[in-house]
Specification:
Layout: E1 4-6, E2 12-16, H1 19-22, H2 47-61, E3 65-69, H3 72-75, H4 85-100, E4 104-110, H5 116-119, H6 129-144, E5 150-155, H7 157-165, H8 178-202, E6 210-222, H9 228-250, E7 261-272, E8 275-276, H10 285-290, H11 303-317, E9 321-326, H12 333-352, E10 357-363, E11 382-384, E12 393-395, H13 397-408, E13 410-412
Bound molecules: beta-D-glucopyranose.
Length: 422
């Protein structure tokens, strides 16, 4: 490959999904939610019935890793209940198919969803959720330890807690409940430490299991350099979303509970007179384009930030890192290809500079249910036609491009920095 940026031979080139977003047929707090575009998760991509076909698609993509969630609400009907055998067998079958296809699984234990009996008891505000979760994970790890070595305990506790209790985007749609936000983070951090011990004790077919959270890293800043109030808002957001959360999970002796740190990286949110200048925050795309903001359908892009944050995490925590999510939502495939190229360029620079990054998981395998936004955000390596009840999958050009990268174990150098903003 011309201009190839070679990655280490054992690097994981993966893709990722989460149960509520792709499986369908779930009964959790999202089941009755209907997004403004009319979308709901009741069928989603029907991955629940079609996971075998989706594993074939992954083989076609040439990925050697898959970050998947296991849905707690499917497996336990009540606190401390035994796991549902039939549902467990389905996940075991999925894991066996992945193994047969040479695809390493990374299992996410909590990705924004809870059983209804947890929700009705107060969710993660209730301290009793912690032992209930530890019990669930103990049973799950006992069942799957021969098949899974990479355990991602919590996906983006920051996003979950902020959208649930500060920004009103996730059920139960509360706003500005700072104490609830903090309590949720603290309970999740405690659960992370406790399930980490469970996983460690269980072992993993003689090898040491890997344990970590996936931290969403968003850069915050002012849109105008001299707007002091926007500087202040950015600093407060950074503290609440990044600093406070990292400290809860990785500060002091808690650092020892993790063997890796997952990084979900999408970009940047800048404030203009307190307004977040990102499509995900409701800013109008045309206005953003006029102001020169380069973004996908969610966030402002900042490829250079990926290198910065990887080096920073490496220095601060000394833990191996995975990019547990990166991707772009857009119907402009050239944009998505450019975006991927520029981020992999940054990633390659970090690896070459000695940062121990062990894998990259493209978000997402499939176009899927994007939580409060329904089906309007197109992140898939495979496009899904949601207007056809057969939900056909189709390889995208981004998927083909990523296949070339996975097969070569190498990215390509960007032509010129066309997406980078600073
Ligand atoms: C989440 C995914 C989500 C993606 C794109 C991440 O914050 O983990 O569930 O679909 O970003 O918004």
């Amino acid at each position: 490959m011309a201009g190839a940026l070679k990655f280490p031979d054992n690097f994981l080139w993966g893709t990722a999904t989460s149960p509520t977003q792709v499986e369908g047929h779930v009964a959790n707090e999202w089941t009755d939610y209907v997004a403004p575009d009319g979308g709901h998760c009741r069928v989603a991509c029907n991955h629940y019935h079609r996971y075998a076909e989706d594993v074939d698609w992954m083989a076609e993509l040439g990925v050697n890793a898959y970050r998947l969630g296991i849905e707690w609400s499917r497996l336990q009907a009540a606190p401390f209940a035994p796991l549902n055998r039939q549902e467990l067998e389905r996940y075991v079958d999925l894991l066996d198919r992945l193994k047969a296809a040479g695809i390493t699984p990374m299992v996410v234990l909590h990705h924004f969803s809870n059983p209804l009996w947890i929700t009705s008891a107060g969710g993660w505000l209730n301290p009793a959720t912690v032992p209930a979760f530890v019990d669930y994970v103990t049973k799950l790890v006992t069942a799957l330890k021969e098949r899974v070595g990479l355990w991602n305990t919590f996906n983006e506790p920051d996003t979950y807690a902020s959208l649930t209790y500060l920004l009103g985007g996730f059920p139960p749609f509360r706003k500005w409940r700072l104490l609830s936000y903090r309590k949720t983070i603290q309970h999740m951090a405690e659960a992370h430490v406790r399930v980490g011990e469970v996983i460690r004790r269980a072992g993993h077919g003689g090898r040491t299991p890997e344990i970590g959270i996936a931290k969403n890293w968003t850069f915050f800043g002012p849109f105008e350099r001299h707007a002091l109030w926007d500087h202040l808002l950015a600093a407060i957001s950074h503290h609440a979303f990044n600093g406070y959360v990292l400290d809860a999970f990785l500060g002091g002796p808690r650092r020892a509970a993790s063997t890796f740190l997952g990084v979900n990286y999408y970009g940047l949110a800048r404030f203009k007179n307190f307004e977040p200048m990102v499509p995900a925050g409701g800013a109008c795309r045309k206005r953003l384009a006029r102001l020169g903001v380069v973004c996908d359908d969610m966030f402002e892009r900042h490829p250079g930030g990926l290198g910065i944050i990887l080096k920073n995490f490496h220095r601060r925590y000394g833990l191996p890192l995975y990019i547990t999510e990166h991707g772009a939502a857009s119907s402009d495939e050239d944009f998505r290809i450019r975006d991927l190229t520029e981020h992999l360029h940054e990633l390659h620079g970090a690896v070459k500079g000695g940062v121990d990054v062990r894998g990259f998981f493209y978000w997402s395998l499939l176009d899927n249910f994007e939580w409060q936004f329904g089906y309007s955000k197109k992140f898939g390596l495979l496009a899904v036609d949601f207007t056809d009840e057969k939900l056909p999958r189709k390889m995208t050009r981004v998927g083909e491009f990523y296949r070339g990268i996975c097969r070569a174990g190498a990215a390509v150098a960007p032509q010129k920095s066309s997406v980078a903003i600073r």
